[in-house]
Write a structure and sequence with these properties.
The complex is a heterodimer.
Chain A: E1 7-10, H1 17-26, E2 41-45, H2 54-69, E3 73-77, H3 81-89, H4 92-97, E4 112-117, H5 123-137, H6 145-162, E5 169-175, E6 180-187, H7 192-202, H8 210-218, H9 222-226, H10 234-244, E7 248-260, E8 266-285, E9 294-295, E10 299-300
Parallel strand pairs in A: 1-2, 2-3
Antiparallel strand pairs in A: 4-5, 5-6, 6-8, 7-8
Helix pairs in contact in A: 5-6, 6-10, 7-8
Chain B: E1 11-16, H1 27-42, E2 45-50, H2 59-73, E3 81-84, E4 86-87, H3 88-109
Parallel strand pairs in B: 1-2, 2-3
Helix pairs in contact in B: 1-2, 2-3
The chains are: A alpha/beta, B alpha/beta.
């Protein structure tokens, strides 16, 4: 049998961050072996995947985007009926056909909000719509401010710091079994630790280990030093908002893995592998969402 | 320069944020609201800002709106800006932001 000229990427629903990052690196366009796979096509095989989460989908979209932008066509290998219907529910099949596809497909069960290419012009639209979508379809009297405002901070951060050659992607899903809303924002930029170290080097200081550099980026007002229109409050507000809901936050950037657990405890460590950009995962427990009510009494600011 | 008249003689005007912007998420949104509020403050008004229809706020927006007011006139200018029609989440976010702003400027003045 002749070997296939088309590369097949096995999509796997990793639970281990390091294995997932290794898989992303292995399958990126820059590691594509043109001699072994001369065809400008990729087959995505979902037969090994069972429970894909937003943190699988958003980096996969970045990966596909790189190939599509370089003229590759993407084909989906027939997976299970459940997987096919899941992928179709948020328009993943359409997304794989063309980057030009700008349709806004809303899933029938209203549990996923469409995969979204983060663009400067439409980042506010996404933030507003995703919050409204879940509030209107599942949480009529609850306030998803934490999701909207955290997403706005993350997207602003991408445009300020990531220097990503391809735009980032974001994907949000409501899991009715675990009663969680999971959002992932992913870009293949330079990564936060690299951005911090570039700045430190530019002012004649020594570079830090990636976990320390990531921690440094979260210090109040650090980003104000690198971007004059910022004040460096963005990350602090993300942490405060998510902590106040007993939610979880994972940040993976370069070699650093930083986790804020649902009890507010923070752990971080250095991975032995480099994530090519930044991947942020927000997990919110819907039982902790506050009631939404508009107050009309005058609020004094100080 | 904005005139700090005694509060008892203050004129009051109200702006509705969504008359100027669809969201309160970007620097550009904040600049639009800043301009409107700044003009009223300069005319001697106390300004009531309605957040009706606003569901989320970002620090980029607040940097360009409230941060710019504080940069230009000092923290006390905020005694002449009131917020109405807000959710509890927006109130907490605003309070937290102003606390950060105040500790930020006091550290810078040390």
């Amino acid at each position: 049998m002749k070997p296939s000229k088309v590369k097949t990427i096995q999509v796997i629903d990793f639970n281990s961050v390091e294995n997932h990052v290794r898989w992303i690196n292995l399958n990126r366009l820059k590691n594509h072996d043109k001699r072994l796979y001369p065809a400008k096509a990729i087959i995505l095989d979902f037969s090994q995947a069972r429970f894909l989460k937003p943190y699988h989908i958003a980096p996969l979209a970045c990966l596909i985007h790189e190939y599509q932008e370089n003229g590759f066509t993407i084909k989906l290998h027939k997976a299970s009926v459940e997987m096919n219907s899941y992928l179709e529910s948020f328009g993943f099949d359409q997304f794989c056909k063309s980057l030009e596809n700008d349709s806004f497909k809303v899933s029938d069960d209203k549990q996923t909000f469409p995969l979204w290419l983060i663009s400067e012009a439409r980042k506010e639209f996404y933030t507003r719509e995703v919050q409204k979508y879940f509030e209107n379809n599942h949480f009529w009297s609850q306030d998803l401010f934490v999701l909207g405002s955290s997403l706005a901070e993350l997207m602003n951060n991408i445009f300020d710091h990531s220097k990503s050659k391809i735009p980032g992607y974001t994907f949000t899903q409501y899991n009715t079994r675990s009663k969680t809303i999971i959002n992932c924002v992913c870009d293949f930029g330079i990564g936060i630790p690299t951005s911090v170290n570039n700045y430190l080097k530019s002012i004649g200081e020594h570079a830090m280990a990636d976990d320390d550099a990531l921690q440094q980026a979260f210090e109040l007002k650090f980003s104000a030093l690198t971007k004059p229109h910022n004040r460096g409050f963005g990350w602090d507000n993300i942490f405060n908002s998510i902590r106040s809901m007993n939610g979880k936050l994972h940040i993976i950037s370069n070699h650093a893995l930083y986790v804020m657990h649902d009890n507010g405890k923070i752990t971080s460590h250095l991975m032995d592998i480099n994530f090519p950009g930044t991947l942020v995962v927000i997990t919110l427990y819907t039982r902790n969402l506050p009631k939404k009510e508009e107050l009309s009494d005058e609020l004094d600011l100080i | 320069m904005i005139n700090f008249a005694p509060r008892t003689t203050m004129k009051t005007d109200k702006i509705i944020l969504t008359d100027f912007t669809h969201t309160a998420l970007s620097n550009a949104d904040g600049v639009m609201v800043y301009t409107a509020v700044n003009n009223l403050l300069a005319d001697g008004y106390t300004v009531i800002v309605s957040f009706s229809g606003i569901n989320a706020v970002s620090t980029s927006f607040l940097n360009s709106f409230i941060g710019n007011l504080v940069d230009n006139y000092g923290l006390n200018i905020l005694t002449r800006v009131k917020i109405v029609d807000y959710t509890a989440s927006i109130a907490n976010f605003l309070k937290n932001y102003i606390q950060q702003l105040s500790s930020f400027s006091s550290r810078n003045n040390e």
